[in-house]
Write a structure and sequence with these properties.
binds adenosine-5'-diphosphate; binds magnesium ion; Alpha-Beta Plaits; 312 residues; 9 helices; alpha/beta; 4-stranded antiparallel β-sheet; 2 domains
Length: 312
């Protein structure tokens, strides 16, 4: 089942009487399955918030269409099934955590004991029960974000949009937020997460999209995006001077400082032929490790390539 589907979704902001145009989102095609956590990564200004606002109909597309849970985004009944934590949200400082949730609960049409019960459950979920009667002005950034999470869940939504939920939160607070998101995933919610913090996204998302200047550069699982298909680290039992005699056009071997070897091959078959040759000479292989980029390395090289206008 599909939770989010966009078709050539595009947004051009026009300002100063049409003089300045910003192409904030450029023909975005994206499909996100229900019950998954999707992380949209990209530097500031990439177009992440624009996408969320488009999907929620806070702003309208210049071109293209989108569906949420199979319904056209224009269907306002959809809002009942959606939760949203905006970027840099602020609550009136004089309200307590409990009052903030009451306010948003009433906006969602809840009241009475149903709402009271829901507020207590949510405060429990985000670990703020003790702070229910404390004014939000004395909340830390992490607590404010956790309260925001509770607010976005007040209507028990199927699909939740979180725009930079861990921005400005310390590492312990971020871990708490990640744990809550995993808990929600366990309850089969779909979570769409915007973030410029790579390490966050890597830890909990099922799939990741990389957005830069309004264009989706890559989409896939963290594993898919970080695998360098062609490079292996080879560790032998004995350190040999070099393995160059085994190299050919399809196989490049270099010795590393730590005594291991880097082997670059076109595919796994070539790697296996090398293993056969080494074993043919009774060379003992201790370890063969597929080399991976971190998401951060992949992200930086992708964005750099884009800046240079180069092809992948
Ligand atoms: N209301 C607006 N009017 C004009 N330009 C905007 C507006 N909102 C965002 N932009 C521009 O659109 C681009 C994408 O912004 P945004 O979606 O906020 O990116 P992100 O959330 O990835 O940081 C940026 O260049 C930003 O300056
Ligand atoms: Mg943003």
């Amino acid at each position: 089942m599909i939770a989010i589907e966009t078709n050539s979704l595009s947004k051009v902001y026009t300002s100063s009487f049409g003089k300045n145009k910003v192409r904030a989102l450029n023909e975005l095609n994206l499909t996100i399955n229900k019950g998954t956590i999707f992380g949209l990564l990209g530097p500031n200004g990439a177009g992440k918030t624009t996408l969320v606002k488009l999907l929620l109909q806070i702003i309208f597309p210049t071109f293209g269409t989108a569906k949420l849970m199979g319904e056209d985004i224009g269907n306002y009944e959809l809002k009942k099934r959606i939760g949203y934590l905006p970027e840099d949200h602020k609550y009136p400082p004089y309200l307590t955590g409990g009052e903030v949730l009451k306010f948003f609960g009433r906006l969602s049409g809840l009241n009475g004991t149903t709402l009271d019960k829901r507020i207590d459950e949510l405060l429990e979920l985000v670990n703020l029960s003790k702070w229910k009667k404390t004014k939000v002005k004395s909340y830390s950034k992490g607590m404010t974000q956790r309260l925001g999470l509770a607010q976005s869940l007040i209507n028990d939504p199927e699909l939740i949009f979180l725009d930079e939920p861990t921005d400005g939160v310390d590492p312990i607070g971020r871990k708490e937020i990640r744990d809550i998101l995993l808990e929600l995933k366990g309850r089969s919610k779909t979570i769409f997460l915007n973030s410029h913090l790579l390490s966050e996204v890597e830890l909990i998302t099922d799939r990741v999209g990389i957005l830069n200047k309004g264009k989706l550069l890559r989409e896939g699982t963290v594993k898919e995006l970080t695998e360098r298909k062609e490079e292996y680290k080879l560790i032998l039992n004995d350190e040999l001077p070099e393995l160059n005699k085994f190299a050919d056009d399809n196989l490049i071997i270099t010795k590393n400082h730590d005594g291991s070897y880097s082997v670059k091959v076109d595919d796994i078959r070539t790697m296996n032929i090398l293993v056969d040759k080494l074993r043919g000479e009774n060379i003992l292989i201790k370890e063969i490790v597929l080399q991976k980029n971190t998401l951060e390395e992949m992200f930086i090289s992708l964005i750099n390539r884009e800046e240079k206008g180069g092809k992948e």
